[in-house]
Fold:
Amino acid sequence: MGALVTILIIWFILALLIYEAIWRIIHIDQIKIDGELMLITACIGLFLNCINMFVIEYAFNEEAKNDDVSAAFLNFNRSCQRAMKNTATRITDQSAHQAKIKIQTSH
Structure:
């Protein structure tokens, strides 16, 4: 029963995220994105995921030495690094674009 409730909660959250994404696409001109807040949120999420990664890697290494777990650990670590780099690049590009728009509209 608990698994069913968890799955339903995940599907509900997914539906909310899809609704929000569609709303943002339709109302793109009404959205103001705070790049600093987005970067801070991404960094916190990355930090917590890295902690989770170390905890899981430690737990699996205590039970058994498994090459698959080590490979997954390294792959996740590389993915985290790429995601952080891409997020920082996008936020920087978007902030520069928004600044350019502000300059153009002020003239």
